[in-house]
Structure formats: C-alpha cells, structure tokens
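User: Once you have settled down, look closely at the record that follows, taking as long as you need, and be ready to discuss the fold:
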Amino acid sequence: MSTNPESQPDDILLTVDGLKASYDESLILRGVDMVVPRNSVVALLGRNGVGKTTLLRSIMGLIPRTEGHIEFAGERIEEMRSDRRARLGLGYVPQGRDIFPNLTVGENLEVSLSIAGKAGKERLDQVYDLFPVIKAMLGRKGGVLSGGQQQQLAIGRALLTNPKLLILDEPTEGIQPSIIDQIEDAIHALKKEGDLSIILVEQYLDFAKAASDTFYILNRGCVVQKGESEALSPEIISEHLTV
C-alpha cells in the first residue's frame, strides 16, 4: 500500500512511494515503498543484486528515478539535486567507504567541517567519543588505515555534516569483529540521542537484527517482506536471504 507523499505524518522522516529506477534501460527498482520513522534504524536487506544500493543512490539523487516520489523531512525531494538533498540532512556512507586516501584523517574531517561549519564542529567531540581511533590517528593518511578504521572515519566524516538521516551501505563488509561491535555500539548511541535516523544495508544478519528497529527485504527490485526486526525469523531468512 503506497503512502500519500502529500500528508507525511510528523513521526515519519522519509517516505519512498512507488519508486522505480533503471540502469541502461534495465528496470532495477520496480515500485518500492518504504518509510523511515524519526529516531529509528531501518535495515534494508536482500541478496546481492536485488537493488539495495540502487535504492540508496536514488534516495540520495545519484541515480534518477523514472517513477515515484520521495519525501524527506516534509519536503518532496525527487527532483532535487544530490547536493541540495545533502544540505537538507541526508548523509551517505557508500560501500567501499570513499574516504580521501591521500589526505590525513584530520584533513578528511576538515572536508566535512568546511561544509557543515559550526554545527559540524559542535559534533566533533561526539565523533571522537564514538570512534577514539579517529582522534588518535589525525595525522595519518587515510589510505594507510585498516578497513575498519577507514569505515569509522567514513561514518565520522558523515556525522560531521549533521545529518537527520544517515545511510550506511554495508558498513561491516570486510572488517574485524571488534570494530563491528564498535559500529553497533555507535548506532545504538546515536539512536539514543534522539535526533537521527539510519538506513542500514547489511549482509551480516545478526548485526542488522541487533542494530535495527524495523526491516525491509528486497528481491528483484521489490519489497517482499517487512516488519519489526525482532520478527526476522529463521523462516524469513531462509526464504529471502539465504544464498
């Protein structure tokens, strides 16, 4: 059932309504409906190649949609440029982290601070609290950090833009268990503060279930299952997620 984008409830931060998107004339998203409540973590799940990253990039304005609507924080954004969406409060950490490897950790942070200004500087101590390794390695080049450290830097850098919605595309991919635990703790801490929602694309199902409030499962560009994360049962996992 589609949500009317003209009457987004106050407790809903993001509404995706009937979204379709294509690559090279191949239809990838086939009418996706999704809502992200304020102060919530929504897990977006599915096997490889079902359209999860395409959905994220469509929300960010990096891929044009062919049909459908997107409303964020009370504004229709499907026609907006990606930079304007970011200024409205959409933060994105893509798969692969996308840090600047030849800049130091401090310089990577400065890129976000130069955009966010005072609001970003006020959040810098929070980033250091969430990920102490960032403060300890301010003078190191981003490219010499481990994969897990780069992921913490990428998330920290996105937080400095003071987003209302943080989109994380497979944040645990290829990183060690201790840092996965730190990222989960950071997600819980951010949610507890009450001013941020998160969309989490994740293959590590135990992490996704523990970190999120609700889930959506995609298959062939459509939502095939959704619900409270505690209801993510072995039967659902076997039907929709097991390779």
Summary: The longest strand covers residues 12-23. The longest helix spans residues 177-193. The CA atoms of residues 210 and 229 lie 8 Å apart.
